[in-house]
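Reopening this one. Same input as before:
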Amino acid sequence: MLTLAGAYGFSLYHEARKDAQSGGVATRIVREYYSLDEVAWPSFISPLMVAQATEDFEDAPIRIVEYADLLCPDCRYLAEQMERLKDEFAGQMNVAFQLFPLEGQCNDVVEKDLHPGACELSYLAAYDPSKFKAIHDEVFANIRSGRDPEWRLELARRHGVEAALQDSATIDMVHRMINTGAEYEQTSEQYAHGIRSTPTMIINGRMIIGTLPYDQLRAIFQALIDEHERGEGTTFIENWEPNR
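Same output, byte for byte:
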């Protein structure tokens, strides 16, 4: 019994230590987020929404422009996080999916030609905003298949968006999204513009390049909700601790 009790106490100690460390990391990542320079929203924000709490993009407490490529594995990882977060922060998030395919056929902003077929998928996804989320989800669920032209053709048929590849309005809209990537200052000497890889998120006016662990991204979102509820200003960050 003493051994069992000792083991149980040891387990509780490690759980408490883990929670304390997690809280410390969350506080640090929120501080780092608020230390980032503020950036402007892109001149054109995608009408393709991953989450939409309000009709006006600016009205939600959490506002995100997500530069992403439908054939990007890290973007799929972020999409999975967003599905969880939009449930947890229901009615509080507007997330615009800013198509940024890393394929030279349509993207002149960044010199990367990593995902053949990404431009075509972008046109298919953008053609009818009411069908965007279904196409977004299906592509990320079948990301390897998305590289196959025959699979993309069948995807277009299933969703009734075959006309997208010849629709000038759709093609122009995707190019407008891509070209906003050139509006941001360099974040790396290797690339001319700030939007240089996917995913890149602009979260309430601050840019995050790449992905974060779920708990850290959640901590930033919670801090934004706390800020919204307390009113303008971020002085509360000095005493911010993650809600558990």
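So the earlier flakiness isn't reproducible anymore. For the record, The longest helix spans residues 2-35.
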